[in-house]
Amino acid sequence: MRLIFDEITERKRQYSISSGQWFPAVEGVSVMAAAASLEVSRKDAQTALLRGEIVGSLRMVCDRCSEPYVEELCCDFVYLATTREEAALDEGEREVAETEELTLYLKDAVIEVDELLAEQVHLAIPQKRLCSEQCRGICVGCGAVLNQDPCHCPEEEKVTPFTVLKRLQKQ
Asked: Contact at 8 Å (CB) between 155 and 141?
């Protein structure tokens, strides 16, 4: 979906996007359902305000146990889109104001909504995908999924400097 900057007015316009074509391809993540809503209005002659929300259900694969699970997606976002020139400052490092990190500097007077939505989804998906915080993963020895099955590895006696003392204690 594309919004032409010059067609945005001060009156707030609502958009509902239910097709998942904008949803990005992310390895290990598939979309069960996703929808986005967007509110757009002109702030001044060169700036537009975009507020939105993405909700949906994602099927993911746990990074520890490799089991599939479903996670709800819900994220809000705000952008300022402007046709002003971006100030290229050659000051080295500097602190960025919150309004600057939310600002989209448009080269063309077109807002690519699909790209904004895809960016927000990428930010909302956790880097470490876990089916639960208590996920125990997979045993490296026998391959058992420790959330469902016990480990089948044979009990091995660990060799430590205290092993000799343990043997003496048993006698």
From this structure: no
Neighbour count for residue 14 (Cβ, 10 Å):
8
The answer on 61 and 27 residing in a single domain is: yes
Domain coverage including residue 158: 138-171
Assigned token pair, 132:
């639960």
Is the confidence at residue 52, as pLDDT, over 60?
yes
Top pLDDT among 170 and 96 is at 170
Point out which residues pair with 103 in neighbouring strands.
80
d(CA 143, CA 44): 60
Q: How far apart, in whole angstroms, are the C-alpha atoms of residue 83 and residue 104?
A: 9
Q: What is the pTM of this model?
A: 0.70
Class of residue 121 by CB neighbours under 10 A (exposed 0-12, middle 13-18, buried 19+): buried
Note the pLDDT tens digit of each residue in 23-41: 777 787 888 888 899 999 9
